[in-house]
Structures are given as structure tokens and as C-alpha cells.
Amino acid sequence: MNIVGKPKFAMQNRGKTPSINPSDVVKFKSLLEYFVAHLEYLQYENKKYQVQRGRGYAKYILPILPNFKKTGQGYKGDAIQNQISQWEQYSCAKSTSGKIFINVQINHGNKTTATNYLCWEGTYYNILAKWAPRWLLIKSVILELSIEDKTPQAEKKLQTMSIAELGLFDGNPPNENLQSFWNYYSKFA
């Protein structure tokens, strides 16, 4: 994947284990739920019944629907970033600002492409959504390192977990799998 226009990232402190702030994990769970809800809503927005609009619609999309931005590049200052403002900042930063950006670019393909991702500011450590067959719903999230390069080695999947494994949309506090996913992802902040 070629992410054009993304800033270069500093390598100091990459991969070191950050101190864990429990509120960061709770925010991260909400951010992942919002991301999935956003993409699934785009897939089903023209459907008649709310249940078909995807998980998280009532909690995350409906309250912001009058000002909902379908697409944008958060790292470029697009208004889509405002939709995650309550979950964008984290205390684990070592070599970044600790800010996560949302990027949804359905104009570069469709709602199910890798141009839709979450990333730490200034890095290429992306969280992508993996769709189930026939794009009915998102089945997992993927942590991936994408380098601005067109070679097959430019992308490296680092970790994949299903929505169920992460406990997204279960109404419970973050589970051990989500904590593990967060611990791994937060090392790159």
C-alpha cells in the first residue's frame, strides 16, 4: 500500500514497552468500535432498517449524524478527525504526539479497501478493517506496518484479531485480548 503524503516518522524509542494507562485502553476500545461502526455505516447507510446500518450505529453514528463526515484524512486536518476527538489522544507516546488519526478514503476504491485506517501521528503503523466475505460486516482488525514503497515487502501484517476476540461491542470493560492488542500497538507511539 502506498500512503501518499504521510509524514515521515522518527525511529527513536520504537518498540519499547510504554507505561500502561488503563483509561487509554478504554478509549482505544471506543475508538476501534467507532472505526468499525463508521465503515459499516457507510456500507449500509442507504438501507431502510437501522439494524442493517452496522454495529455501533446508535451509540456512535446517530448522535453525530447531522454533522457526519463520511471521508477524510485526519492527519491532513480534515473534519473527519473531529468525530474521534474524544478518543484520539493517548498518554503512551514516546516518539509521537500520542495522537491517532482516522483516514477514510472511499474515493480511492471502495469502503472495504486499505485506504481506510487508523494510525499514530507520523507513523505507518496502521489499523485496518478486514471484511467478511461479501462485505457484510467487519470480522477483524489488523495492525499493519505500511511503508511508502510499492514492493510486496512494504506491508507487514503484525497482528490480527477478530471483533469478537477483542470484545468490541460487548458492553464490557476491555478484555485481555484488547489489552494485548493495545500493548502491542502502543509500543509504536
Number of strands: 6
Tell me the strand percentage band. 15-25%
How would the global form be characterised? globular
Order of helices and strands: HHEEEEEEHH
| Rg from alpha-carbon coordinates | 16 Å
Q: Describe the sheet with the most strands.
A: 6 strands, antiparallel
Describe the structure.
- With 189 residues, the chain is an alpha+beta fold.
- 23% of the residues lie in helices and 19% in strands.
- The chain has 4 helices and 6 strands.
- It has a 6-stranded antiparallel beta sheet with strand order 1-2-3-4-5-6.
Give descriptors for this structure:
alpha+beta; six-stranded antiparallel beta sheet; 189 residues
Topology summary:
Layout: H1 22-44, H2 57-61, E1 72-73, E2 100-104, E3 117-120, E4 125-131, E5 138-146, E6 155-162, H3 163-166, H4 176-186
Give a short synopsis of this structure.
This protein has 189 residues and is an alpha+beta fold.
